[in-house]
Amino acid sequence: MSKTGDDNRAYAAAHFGMELDGTKQIGMFRSVEGGGVKADVMTYHHSINKESGYGRYRQLGRPKFDDIKLQVGMSMSQPFYEWLRDFFDGKPTRKNGAILAGDFQYKERARRNFSNAMIKELTFPKLEGQDKNPAYMNVALAVEDVQYQPGTGDDLAEAGDQNAQRLWTACNFRLSLDNFEGTRRCTKIDPFTIKQNIIEYHAGGFKTTQKLPTVVEFPNIVFYIPEADGEPFIKHMQKRVGFGSSGNGEVRDPNAIHGQIDVFDTDEKKNVVFTLEFYGADVVSVTPDKSDADSNEAKMVKVEIYTEKMTFNYPVLELE
After folding, report:
1. Residue 317: is its pLDDT beyond 60?
2. How far out from the chain centre does Cα 269 lie?
3. What is the SS3 assignment for 170?
4. H or E stretch covering 316
5. What is the pLDDT of residue 194?
6. C-alpha 256: how far from its chain's center?
7. CA 114 – CA 142 distance, rounded (Å)
8. Which CATH class is domain 15-38+56-318?
9. Residue 274 near residue 313 (C-beta atoms within 8 A)
10. Three-state DSSP class for 158?
11. What band does 293 get if pLDDT is binned at 50, 70 and 90?
12. Are the beta carbons of 226 and 300 closer than 8 angstroms?
């Protein structure tokens, strides 16, 4: 629905905003999809007779609501990043809110109200030293109910500053690992996704399906460093896994690796925009890049590590 007052003209949705728990100025994001509603068709069969024919009729079952998928950056506000922090900490925080769609004049033309939303997935984008484009995170929300309503005509420009997104570009980052100096010349980090599987619970007396959280799953992190910095990772794997002449390896390292990814803004001072810390990490693989006699590029090594836990640290939250 996109009617605002008596104006029901078609429009191009150019700006999107979000409300959470009654707070309107949550921020603006790049794109939104999902949030649709559908229902299964149930078919019932009766005995065949002359009056009823084949004795079959149909009706709609319970409504189902698709996940809402957002592409967000640094133009959101504090309540949203607090929600992200709770997700990393394994806290299944539920939120009620709305997705707002505005026209080119930032006037709200339509809204999708949602209830009992939980963060289901967060995909961290690729970071690369040569990529100067803005970076965005993909966030998937599992919702229990969605309602479509006309827009209020309010000004979405007050919801957030889209210029703030330019603070985060894919080339401004730093990876650091305990006891591994080679990560200071990391050139790229592959995208990765943190997931929380959602269980659907069908309870009597409820029209919609209840959605319950499960454990948060943290992925492996893959990054690339010059081959000249890869030797410490090879030696670490020899010690931990036990190949070559290094014995049988250690079952578990009592001093598991701690590390973090710092993201900086575009200012000359290189202020930290946010930090992802990970704990209980260890090296899974070290893979040298393909060797080519005709290549003029520096020889790289791909390193993969697993993690047991991650935390999201946003500077504004740390000041509380």
Report:
1. no
2. 28
3. coil
4. helix 315-318
5. 96
6. 26
7. 10
8. mainly beta
9. yes
10. helix
11. low
12. yes
The tokens of 29 are what?
């994001």
For 200-251, the pLDDT digits (tens) are: 887 776 677 888 899 999 999 999 999 989 999 988 888 887 776 545 666 5
* DSSP state at residue 133: S
Using the predicted structure, report yes or no on whether residue 6 has a pLDDT greater than 80.
no
Which one-letter amino acid corresponds to residue 161?
A: D
Residue with tokens 């965005």: 136
Return the pLDDT at 166. Answer: 56
What is the pTM for the complete model shown? 0.82
* C-alpha to C-alpha distance for 271 and 273, rounded to whole angstroms: 6
The answer to whether the CB of 141 falls within 8 A of the CB of 121 is: no
**Nearest by Cα to 262 from 177, 191, 320:** 177
Torsion 190-191-196-198 (CA) sign? negative
Domain boundaries, the chain: 15-38+56-318
* Residue 118 Cα distances to 25, 87, 214, 219, 279, angstroms: 19, 8, 11, 19, 24
Q: How many residues does the chain have?
A: 320
80: its two tokens = 């949203």
Quick one: which of 166, 115, 117, 126 has its CA closest to 273?
166
Contact (CB, 8 A) for 126 and 46 = no
Phi-psi category of 153—alpha, beta or left, where left has phi over 0 and alpha has psi -120 to 50? left
Alpha carbon of 140 to those of 53, 68, 71, 244, 251: distances in Å?
47, 6, 9, 44, 36
Q: Which residue has the tokens 């730093």?
A: 174
* Cβ-Cβ contacts under 8 Å for 240 (sequence gap 6 or more): 249, 250, 253, 282, 283
The tens digit of pLDDT for each residue in 114-145 reads: 999 999 999 999 999 999 888 889 999 999 99
Radius of gyration of the CA atoms of the chain, in A: 25
Q: Where do we find the tokens 């929600």?
A: 83
